[in-house]
User: Fold this.
Amino acid sequence: LAKTTQPISMDSYEGQEVNITCSHNNIATNDYITWYQQFPSQGPRFIIQGYKTKVTNEVASLFIPADRKSSTLSLPRVSLSDTAVYYCLVGAVSSGSARQLTFGSGTQLTVLP
Amino acid sequence: DTAVSQTPKYLVTQMGNDKSIKCEQNLGHDTMYWYKQDSKKFLKIMFSYNNKELIINETVPNRFSPKSPDKAHLNLHINSLELGDSAVYFCASSQDTAGGSYEQYFGPGTRLTVT
Assistant:
């Protein structure tokens, strides 16, 4: 069962790039790494998912080193509305197969003006 | 259109009661989940169903029983509620690929308070 570790909190200023790292030392071969964003009183919202190397979409980039024991979520030019809790999730789900899904403890990102 | 919906949004009840939380998804996904988020914001998976079949059953008390009448619904029934059951419960769904990748869509949550 992959255990994940994230920083509890981070502060940044508007317009800066923010990098949040998640450690998952015993990630399994089939596991994917997924990042979610959660605002107060809402359910988590998918940001990005990757298996290895680098993945980029319209809102973020995900960097995964070759050993896959950690991953870094990169948010370019954050704004005040990016203030939220960010979770990394490690695991895999396939039809008919049981997989373990482990969320990190979450990182509270506060963007300051 | 709401993708994943849960009812009720708030649930206040007394110890010892039995309650249910309902979840529906209109995304046509194959897999649905229940998560518990405690006061410290830890998100922990409880159950997962794929095509109405249980595929993940974490160590939760057997007072918690999921029921999936069809692919679009996954309800959570809780017997003999205890104070420690107070939390926010999230339902989620995903359309899975053969390779194991997934993107989960979460509902708005049900805040359960046991007094």
Remarks:
- The interface with chain B takes residues 30-32, 34, 36, 41-46, 49, 51, 85, 87, 89, 92-103, 105-106 of chain A (CB under 8 Å).
